[in-house]
Design brief:
Blueprint: E1 8-13, H1 23-30, H2 36-44, H3 46-56, E2 58-64, H4 77-88, E3 93-97, H5 107-117, E4 122-125, H6 127-130, H7 142-154, E5 158-161, H8 179-186, E6 192-195, H9 203-212, E7 216-219, H10 228-231, E8 242-243, H11 256-264, H12 271-285
Parallel strand pairs: 1-2, 2-3, 3-4, 4-5, 5-6, 6-7, 7-8
Helix pairs in contact: 2-3, 5-7
Length: about 290
């Protein structure tokens, strides 16, 4: 199929304040990239990035940010960065932020700041980079429960990284999608998005959790599109629960359009399903105002 003429929505793009990155993480991030100058321009110029999105055929995109001071270097101010960035072009951007419960004195107050003052469009939880499991509120991190409770009350989606990470210090064993099964059980009205479908070790687990729970969705970011039919052959059974994302500019993602074109060209899925993933499903979660 051809990509939609009205554009497609990429819910998972990383425009972040790289000046906060730890040196060893930044070295991994920039390794072998020919487009560093372009990325740097976009980090400081929302209008330039919005113009680029138009060239790529992207109607809107989600800017994924989250604090992970111990492993990545990002602190709570990354929320202010992404909110201010989004506010310059709210027609193009959705702002994902986050909270590291172990690094704030008042988790409830911080969550209220993120959702009331900054008006974030979604909250990101990244277990391998933040150092806790998605279900650690059950035993040792009760502050994490506050994050889920407030987002459930407000109808704000929570994206949880599922799968591995290649960055120095990341704890990949914390990325098992089965941890999200507890979250979905305990917060049945929470809009829960499992990023990356458990890539590359836990595709079956991610599929199971998403199929089991009405409130759980998945995004396809970070998965080479040509592998989707092989690793998730029954994905179309979840046609109303799948969101498009690229994870750009993470390693291995050339640009936003090329990945979407590869997905659109797949023989294993129907055009109706592809349109839901690229346009209809994200527009249902984040209606165009």
């Amino acid at each position: 199929m051809q990509l939609p003429a009205e554009g497609f929505i990429d819910v998972h793009v990383h425009i972040q304040p790289w000046e906060q990155l730890k040196p060893e993480v930044r070295a991994k991030m920039v390794q072998g990239r020919p487009d560093l100058e372009l990325i740097s321009t976009f980090q400081g110029d929302p209008n330039a990035f919005a113009d680029y999105l138009d060239e790529m055929g992207v109607s809107r995109c989600g800017l994924v940010n989250y604090p992970a001071p111990r492993i990545m270097g990002f602190d709570q101010s990354t929320n202010d960065f992404v909110a201010q960035y989004r506010d310059q072009r709210p027609d193009k951007f959705l702002a994902w932020g986050g909270m590291d419960p172990e690094w704030v004195d008042d988790p409830r107050g911080e969550m209220e700041r993120l959702l009331d003052d900054l008006r974030l469009d979604g909250i990101k939880v990244h277990p391998p980079h933040q150092g806790f499991k998605a279900n650690d509120y059950l035993e040792k991190l009760p502050e994490l429960r506050v994050l889920y409770e407030i987002c459930e009350e407000r109808g704000v989606p929570v994206m949880v990284h599922t799968g591995t990470s290649v960055f120095p210090g990341a704890r990949s064993n914390l990325g098992n999608p089965l941890d999200c099964d507890d979250v979905a059980v305990d917060f049945p009205e929470l809009k829960l998005v499992m990023a990356h479908c458990g890539r590359p070790l836990w595709y079956d687990e991610a599929f199971f959790v998403c199929r089991r729970h009405p409130n759980v969705m998945m995004d396809l970011s970070g998965i080479p599109p040509q592998q989707l039919v092989q690793v998730l052959p029954r994905l179309e059974l979840l046609s109303d629960k799948i969101l498009w994302g690229t994870d750009w500019p993470s390693p291995g993602v050339k640009n936003l359009r090329s990945n979407a074109e590869a997905f659109a060209d797949l023989d294993g899925f129907s055009d109706e399903f592809k349109t839901k993933v690229l346009v209809d499903n994200p527009n249902r979660i984040w209606p165009v105002l």
